[in-house]
Amino acid sequence: MLTFLAALPSNCQTAFGKLGVTVTDEQGVALPSASVSGSRVPNLIRAGSHFDLAPGEQRFFVSGATDAAGSYSNSSVPPGTYLVCAEVPGQAFLNSCKWGETKSMVVASGQTSADTVRLGKGVFLKVHIEDPKSLLPPDRRPLGPPPVIVGVKFGNGAFLAADLVSVTEGADFSMPIPVNTPLELWLSTREVSLADQQGNTVDLSTRKISFTAIPSSDQSFSFTVSGRIAAP
What we know:
- By secondary structure, this protein is mainly β.
- It folds into two domains: 2-119, Sandwich (Immunoglobulin-like); 123-228, Immunoglobulin-like, CATH 2.60.40.
- It has one helix and 19 strands.
- It has one helix spanning 96-99; strands spanning 2-6, 17-25, 35-40, 44-47, 50-53, 59-65, 71-77, 80-87, 103-107, 112-119, 123-130, 149-154, 158-161, 163-166, 170-177, 182-188, 192-195, 209-212, 219-228.
- The radius of gyration is 22 Å and the shape is globular.
- The chain starts with a strand and ends with a strand.
């Protein structure tokens, strides 16, 4: 379990409460080893053109993993409203804050606030970019954007980036996505040109490849680096 506390005045006496979260699937089955994170919503005051923490206010973050019963708790939580998220690393359960409704929990001094976060099950989006001529430059993060960005757009234009999981013989990206939901695969690169499996050049000016994932089957795409993009 990890906690992080910032902006807590040295003379502030805080009576803590307890925050408890149970993570389950949509059928109520407990999910062990789920990652839980929460952040306290601080009160702010306007200070000219920006906002600062109100006097005596504090930021507080918690994170940890659920036990075998799908439960996580922290008994040293300052009172306030917390926004809580959950996901299961390595499994296709959908992050509750990215794909669902963020859970809001109120913690009071000396009291226990307990709630359940239910995670929907999706499938994995897997995107492989073959690089037979080793034209992809090294990933420059955190000093600059990666050579290729892969993700999905959905709803009214929301965007979520996929994780780069491997750079063996190209690049592999992965992320959990919902099923039976219209999505758009989004690709961006200023370094190389890409071709689809039929050898057609991918038009990155639109970056739009519409698809809908189906249950019980990962959604896969494959592209090949076909050349470098000349510097302007």
